[in-house]
């Protein structure tokens, strides 16, 4: 099972790298000033950014965590509280990011508020360490 998971993770990461390279090439030949608005520029980039986001989420759902001490400057909260806050709009992706955590250790697995609102998050970790921007 682990071998299959490792192979799938490698495939996903390779696809992400390919898409990032394509996006970089697009950015190199395109000027944001070519678009009437920031939103227009973002929309032009979305064929890549949307796919990268989906693949990144799949990787984060499969990733085997590495653990470290919870830093003093992060806000630790119960997963249930984080979920409720995200569902109520209290946290959005622009506000910051979090990492899954156990009672005394933080993982290296990122969680975004949009993971919650899309219903695609890991429930095996009891806490989130949140970092505001």
Helix-strand layout with pairing:
Blueprint: H1 2-29, H2 38-62, E1 67-69, E2 75-78, H3 79-87, E3 96-101, E4 105-111, H4 113-117, E5 127-132
Antiparallel strand pairs: 1-4, 2-5, 3-4, 3-5
Structure, described:
The protein has helices spanning 2-29, 38-62, 79-87, 113-117, and strands at 67-69, 75-78, 96-101, 105-111, 127-132. It is an alpha+beta fold. The chain folds into two domains: 2-62; 67-132, no CATH class. It has a five-stranded antiparallel beta sheet with strand order 1-4-3-5-2. Helix 1 packs antiparallel against helix 2. It is globular and about 50 Å long. The model has no long low-confidence stretch (mean pLDDT 94).
Name the structural class. Answer: alpha+beta
In N-to-C order, the SSE pattern is HHEEHEEHE
Q: Biggest sheet, in brief?
A: 5 strands, antiparallel
Low-confidence blocks of residues: none
Identify the strand order in the major beta sheet.
Answer: 1-4-3-5-2
Q: What is the helix tally?
A: 4
Query: How much of the polypeptide forms β-strand, as a percent range?
Result: 15-25%
What is the helix fraction of residues, given as a range?
Answer: 40-55%
* Overall number of structural domains: 2
Shape: globular
The termini sit apart by 38 Å
């Amino acid at each position: 099972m682990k071998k299959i998971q490792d192979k799938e993770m490698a495939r996903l990461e390779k696809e992400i790298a390919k898409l990032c390279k394509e996006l970089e090439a697009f950015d190199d030949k395109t000027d944001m000033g070519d678009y009437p608005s920031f939103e227009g520029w973002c929309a032009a980039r979305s064929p890549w950014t949307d796919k990268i986001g989906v693949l990144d989420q799949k990787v984060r759902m499969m990733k085997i965590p590495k653990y470290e001490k919870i830093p003093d400057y992060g806000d630790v909260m119960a997963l249930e509280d984080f979920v409720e806050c995200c569902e109520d709009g209290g946290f959005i992706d622009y506000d910051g990011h979090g990492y899954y955590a156990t009672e005394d250790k933080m993982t290296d697995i990122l969680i975004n508020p949009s993971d919650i609102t899309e219903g695609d998050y890991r429930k095996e970790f009891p806490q989130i360490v949140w970092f505001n921007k």
